[in-house]
Amino acid sequence: SLFLNSQYVIIIIMLAVFLSCVVGVAFSQFQNIQGVTGWDQLKTTFGTNPFSAYYPVPLTESAAHLAPILDGHEKSSTWTQVMSCESNGVGNVYIEDDDISVMPIYGVNGQVFGIILAFYEPGESARNSSDLFTKYTLMDGTVVYGVTAYFREPSTVCTEERKYNSSDVGDRLYIKGASPSDNGGYLHVPQFEDADGVDELELHGFKEGACFWGMGKHYWRYMDVDMDCNDTYPLFVLYNGGKLQAWGIAMAHDDRPTSKVVKKYSKKWEYPKGNSLNFFFKKGQTPTCLPLQGELITMHVYMNNPAYMLCI
User: Fold this and answer.
1) 167 in Cβ contact with 211 (< 8 Å)
2) How far apart are alpha carbons 311 and 241 in whole angstroms?
3) How far is the CA of 294 from the CAs of 124, 150, 200, 233, in angstroms?
């Protein structure tokens, strides 16, 4: 009987080890999608002049109401609510000084839940060829089209009353409409650039690009050297030190908005062009059409201080 008891003990130990491995792998995969991020600020727009770039986004609705002068930008901002939980369930959405390009989303708990990068007209190619752009109607009836990201569980934006650390941006990056076949239409972006994270990125069509200071290492979605620029997918994500730190969009299709049009209502978009685009791709992997497209229209969204993104 002692021998039998020993066999049972061995079997129980083996089962325990097997289950711990399974649970450990599952937890590791879950942790790579959401968890403690260390994201403690929200800014947009890359630039070499810090006074005309890196625009801060308030992390709380009360801060948006107070409209403080932040991070050296001299002009005090006026943030105005343009959508609400009651009006459309997206969340409590604001714009700064009538500029629709960057629209933070706040939950009913008053804390930032996500952000929308918007245009009045992104172009027919963007509207028709991708679920990435969502049509929104603002409180005054204005229609805009935006790329939407959430930093917390989207389904709770209008119900979650629990307060988080006021300097905490969130615990995940979900991109709306970027994964229409699963996850409720949200692309779950891996938090870590480890083996599992890279596998997940590649599974969703991302290719590793180049690292550039003040941005991070790019991963581009559905980009190929010989592709037509009208087929480019606007989404990219950025890692620094192996961790997800930023994301953004880059518009290259022929009917994209022009800088002349966009600058009339926004100062926050970027307009890279020509051979400078080679700095953001691995050598020889820049789509050949991109440097010939003239000014692209791009935006970076940072969840951490871009000054630390040194590519080292």
Assistant:
1) no
2) 8
3) 19, 31, 33, 17
pLDDT in tens, 126-184: 887 678 999 999 999 999 999 999 999 999 999 988 888 877 999 999 999 998 777 78
Please give the single-letter amino acid code of residue 247: W
Q: Are 238 and 284 in contact (CB under 8 A)?
A: no
Count other Cβ atoms within 10 Å, centred on residue 117: 24
Q: How far apart are the first and last CA of the chain?
A: 62
Structure tokens, 131: 């679920």
212 CB contacts (<8 Å, ≥6 apart)? 218, 279, 280, 311
Closest CA to 209 of 129, 136, 113, 290: 290
Q: Check residue 182 and give left, alpha or beta (phi > 0: left; psi -120 to 50: alpha).
A: beta
C-alpha dihedral over 203, 206, 210, 211, to 10 degrees?
A: -80
Q: In sequence order, what DSSP letters do the residues of the chain get, joined into one string? A: -HHHHHHHHHHHHHHHHHHHHHHHHHHHHHHTTBS-------EE---SSGGGS-EE--SBHHHHHH----TT--SPP-EEEEE-HHHHSS-EEEEETTBTTEEEEE-TTSBEEEEEEEES---HHHHHH-SSEEEEE-TTS-EEEEEEEESS-GGGTTT------TT---SB-EEEEEETTSTTEEEE--SB-SHHHHHHHHHTTEEEEEEETTTEEEEEES--TT--GGG---EEEEEETTEEEEEEEEE-STTSPPHHHHTTT-S--B---GGGGGGGS-TT-S-TTGGGS---EEEEEESS-GGG----
Contacts of 155 (CB under 8 A, 6+ apart): 184
Query: How far is the C-alpha of 238 from the C-alpha of 194, rounded, in Å?
Result: 13
> What is the pLDDT confidence band of residue 15, given thresholds at 50, 70 and 90?
very low
Number of other residues whose CB lies within 10 A of the CB of residue 285: 16
Residue 76 pLDDT class (50, 70, 90 cuts) = low
